[in-house]
Design a protein that fits this description.
The structure is a homodimer.
Chain A: H1 3-21, E1 29-37, E2 40-43, H2 45-53, E3 60-71, E4 78-88, E5 95-105, E6 111-120
């Protein structure tokens, strides 16, 4: 497994799903998963997806600037650190954001998101 | 242990040490520690501190905007996600940055930095 390839594939899958049908992101989270979104904390796939689905915009497009990854320890997890910008439909200026994911392996050989922290980078 | 209090204390200690004597940051890392700095990868306390010490500025001041933290799993680690700006001596404009740390517990009841990822957020 090439960690850089896995993290790049994850990032592409995550944001393309977010930008087309974010209610489908639930399969990437589990009951123990955590999201901190602009300082607000949520736990569990259901609560996390409810938060993402409730964001006050319909259409958006994430453009990724950088993706960094590191193994997180003996449990086989992987840290993925993303920067980019978020274009909302009807808004002139894109919003810059940073986000980190901690991916943990599943018994099926895939990964799920255990930790997710998102912040807009205000100018 | 209150994770928010620990992460806040860590962040204050880390950046005040960075801004006054960054060669002393080595005690916060161990041999297995990883740093990804603007996409460049370093491993081990010695290599990490050598990189930080070699950065092409003498004086700087980190101003922290946000600190988010989450437990990283059963090993007792903690993820700390920071945003802020970095003022370099003699530069008019501060640089925005995001940084994440994965803190792991030591047998002595303290924490060391296992993962460290730093990115400037260019406008």
């Amino acid at each position: 497994m090439d960690p850089d390839a896995v993290s790049k594939a994850f990032v592409e899958h995550y944001y393309s799903t977010f930008d087309t049908s974010r209610a489908n992101l639930g399969t990437l989270y589990q009951d123990a998963s955590m999201l901190t979104f602009e300082g607000q904390k949520f736990q569990g796939a259901q609560n996390i997806v409810a938060k993402l689905a409730s964001l006050p915009f319909e259409q958006c497009k994430h453009n990724i600037s950088t993706v960094d990854c590191q193994p997180s320890g003996p449990a086989g997890g992987m840290l993925v650190f993303v920067s980019g910008n978020l274009q909302l439909a009807g808004e002139q200026h894109a919003l810059k954001f940073s986000q980190m994911f901690h991916l943990m392996p599943t018994p099926q050989g895939s990964f799920y998101v255990f930790n997710d922290i998102f912040r807009l980078n205000y100018a």
